[in-house]
Design a protein that fits this description.
Blueprint: E1 7-13, E2 17-22, H1 56-73, E3 79-82, H2 94-108, E4 113-118, H3 126-132, E5 137-141, H4 147-153, H5 162-169, E6 177-185, E7 188-189, H6 193-206, E8 210-215, E9 226-227, H7 230-236, H8 238-242, E10 247-250
Parallel strand pairs: 2-3, 3-4, 4-5, 5-6, 6-8, 8-10
Antiparallel strand pairs: 1-2, 6-7, 6-9
Helix pairs in contact: 1-2, 2-3
Length: about 250
């Protein structure tokens, strides 16, 4: 589902509450350095109709209008969420846009959280890490324990390395949220012993303040994917729960 607005919602999120979304990417296309087999926005190849990014000024003006409307109509905003049709940190004005969003949040909904949903591929850039550390909820994705596994589930652009992403995420010093999709495909299984143990060891290295484990909830572009139940995911992550990690599990 391609979002055709720069600011959309609020929509009810199973993880974030009433979420007002920000799409820093093309209004009628998709721009991402991942091509995940489960992405609700579809394949990258199907979202090439539009390649124009909104300017930072356009983003801030659209958000100002949306927040004003929500405030006037008494609509709660729990989270202002960078999501949209691809990877938000690819926008060249991402750092200045984050600053503008925080300023507007403080003016209109000071109790709401600013959230960024990211595949963590740009965290190695100092200016991106610095901006992500300013937001309330930097939600960083690792779906597979190895680069080979990521190639299967995330289909990243050339040069992606799980090891490099883990090293970059250490810059948060644990003050971030790790997000992981659990699913089964004919060629990838999140619960496979080597992958699961490797992923848990990544968690132990990074010690994020919270972990979001979730599964399929919306139509995926690839057929044959299977979801896990909440009970199954709880059993899979039990060693981490026993070690005291804060894990939010969503079916």
């Amino acid at each position: 589902m391609i979002r055709e607005e720069t600011v959309f919602g609020p929509i009810r999120s199973r993880r974030l509450g009433n979420s007002l979304g920000i799409n820093l990417l093309p209004r009628k296309g998709k721009l991402c350095n991942f091509d995940c087999i489960y992405c609700e926005c579809g394949w990258n190849a199907d979202g090439r109709e539009d390649r124009e990014l909104p300017s930072g000024r356009e983003v801030i003006e659209a958000l100002k209008t949306a927040l004003g409307n929500c405030k006037d109509r008494g609509i709660p905003v729990d989270s202002i969420t960078f999501s949209g049709d691809g990877e938000p940190t690819l926008h060249p004005e991402f750092p200045s846009i984050v600053d503008g969003v925080i300023e507007l949040r403080d003016r209109y909904f000071p109790q709401s959280k600013v959230t960024v949903l990211s595949n963590a591929t740009q965290v190695h850039r100092e200016e991106v890490l610095r901006s992500l550390r300013k937001v309330d909820n930097p939600v960083m994705k690792i779906d597979a324990a190895t680069t080979a596994g990521a190639r299967l589930i995330n289909r990243p652009a050339a040069g992606y390395s799980v090891e490099a992403v883990v090293e970059a995420l250490k810059g948060f010093e644990g003050d971030f949220i790790l997000q992981t999709m659990f699913l089964k495909a004919p060629f990838f299984d999140s619960s496979e012993k080597t992958n699961l143990e490797g992923w848990m060891n990544i968690v132990r290295q990074l010690r994020p303040r919270q972990i979001m484990v979730y599964t399929l909830d919306r139509p995926a572009p690839m057929e044959g994917l299977r979801k896990f139940t909440v009970e199954q995911m709880e059993a899979l992550v039990k060693p981490l729960l026993d070690e005291g990690f804060d894990i939010q599990i969503k079916g």
